[in-house]
Design goal:
By secondary structure, the chain is mainly beta. The protein is built from one helix and 13 strands. About 5% of the residues lie in helices and about 45% in strands. A hairpin with a 2-residue loop joins strand 7 and strand 8.
């Protein structure tokens, strides 16, 4: 029987699973190109805000577990100060593509019309304009807008307003994300 087990403390390995949809959408192309090591991984412990530890994707499994629809992955986390301890549970964020600028808005500003998402935008003469948008995931509490808005558009966040209605806006900031590194449209509460 072994007397002891040697564990790596610096660097530390983080093992996690990636769902099949994420793998198929993003990682399979990077894997074919041999570029998965360039995809950034960030790690956070249960008591951390966000994911403060930067890591590097080191391994992707060679097959998808068909019963669970996942593929195994491993990242390497530098741990020079020994803040991370082997065996702890952690949250992992894997960037599955290149960083790009995008617009973020509060989810409460988005309406739905059958299968379409829309927002009401304030025109130059303070009238509400209907604007169909395409949305993405939530990042730092705000919804990604993939198309339909431009930086500088003023989105009506609250108020009982219909398209074409004249409003008296009270400008308010969008809920600020934790790391405001992308442009955001301004917000307004509409008053009649």
């Amino acid at each position: 029987a072994p007397l002891t087990t040697i564990l790596s403390v610096d660097p530390l390995y983080v093992e996690f699973n990636i769902d099949e949809a994420t793998y198929l959408a993003s990682l399979s192309a990077a894997r074919r190109d041999g570029g998965t090591a360039r995809l950034p991984v960030s790690v956070g412990l249960m008591n951390d805000d966000g994911h403060p530890y930067a890591a590097t994707l080191a391994f992707l499994g060679n097959g998808i577990d068909k019963s669970a629809g996942i593929i195994q992955a491993r990242a390497i986390v530098p741990n020079p100060r020994g803040n991370l301890t082997p065996g702890l549970f952690a949250r992992v964020r894997l960037a599955s593509g290149e960083a790009r600028q995008t617009l973020l808005i509060a989810d409460e500003a988005i309406g739905s019309d059958q299968d379409k998402s829309f927002v009401l935008v304030l025109s130059k003469d303070n009238k509400a304009e209907y604007r169909e948008i395409t949305t993405g995931p939530i990042v730092d509490g705000l919804r990604v807008v993939r198309s339909g808005l431009a930086a500088g558009d003023v989105v009506i966040v609250k108020g009982l307003v219909r398209p074409g209605m004249q409003v008296s806006p009270r400008r308010v900031p969008m809920q600020a994300p934790a790391a405001p590194a992308v442009p955001q449209p301004a917000g307004a509460e509409a008053r009649r």
